[in-house]
Amino acid sequence: MEYHIGVRTNQLAEAEKRCGARVAHCRWASGTLIKRLSMHPIVDFIKKELKRTSDQATAIGMQKYMKTDQPFYGVKTPVRKKIYKAATRAYPINSRKEYEDIIEELWGGPFREEMYQALEVAQNTRAFHGTESLPLYEKMIHSSPNWDTLDWLATRVIGSLIIEDRRLESKLIEWSESGNFWVRRASLLAHLKHKDETNFNLLAETILKLAHEEEFFIRKAIGWVLREYSYTNPRWVIEFVTNHQETLSSLSKREAMKHINKLGGCRT
Prior knowledge:
- It is a single chain.
- This protein is mostly helical.
- The protein has a domain at 1-129: Leucine-rich Repeat Variant (Alpha Horseshoe), CATH 1.25.10.
- The chain is 62% helix and 1% strand.
- Strands 1-2 form a two-stranded antiparallel sheet.
- The radius of gyration is 20 Å and the shape is globular.
């Protein structure tokens, strides 16, 4: 079952019709809707505010940009973040179960901005963002529909956990061998913000494992993570790219060297 939406008002009407007035939760996952009969107050608040601030023209543009059939409310990031902050002020999250239930309800919503709000909760609820919720984060990685949600999860939600507990690097190795290329992308991007705490041996191993792939989003991720690490260790990146000229794609090499080339190839 999919949403094929052409007009903003139809997006709302269709989603509500499919969910029903008494159904609180519709999961977008491989075209299947799973309905739940409960809704946390914070989820109800967020959904109502997203609907209230929705914009038809913006929604259509967002949907086209992401090349998806999943509907959008058309709520831009600054407004969406204000809604999230207001919701968490009004309804503080007091337990891990509550934290995970809220994330699951929002992640399963029919609109993309509801998934974004799930990620806000996952990332910013500091008391409960942690390795204990890794099984939930991993489910989200495996059900992420595109780069917008996947990259947020890998870099902002999961990346910091790897630093806290290096045993979780075994998950990155596992993800690098997944049949889902978005999951493989996550195995690269989880390193993105590690700076001088980067496990460059694991990063190099993962890059070389995936470098043969022709998938654009894998090649782009390889270049992106190398470019980000070049801010911390440009010499390592130069040597890595030089030593693997024949293995890395042109896209990956070009992205990797962007910052270094701006500095005139500085090796310091």
